[in-house]
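call fold(seq) -> tokens
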Amino acid sequence: MYDERHMDYVFVDVRTDEEYNAGHIPGAIHIPHDEMEERASELESRKGEDILLICRSGRRSVIAANILADQGFSRLFNLKGGMLEWNGPVEK
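ret:
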């Protein structure tokens, strides 16, 4: 369930370009899960922050979290149920 506390997270959307463009959480950083290994450095400056990974249902975000954990990220969270369960603001 959405509330303003969610805004304390760095949102990272790991869905495909098509899914992201169809609607995403405002301000979310978009790095598709299958590009995470190559692009994790884009999140390096946010390493000490709480990072909330988002996909459609929660599976791909777990894969992305594992990749980031292997690269030393420790404050990782998965949006349970993904965008299917998100009831906060969405932009296109």
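The two ends are 21 Å apart (CA to CA).
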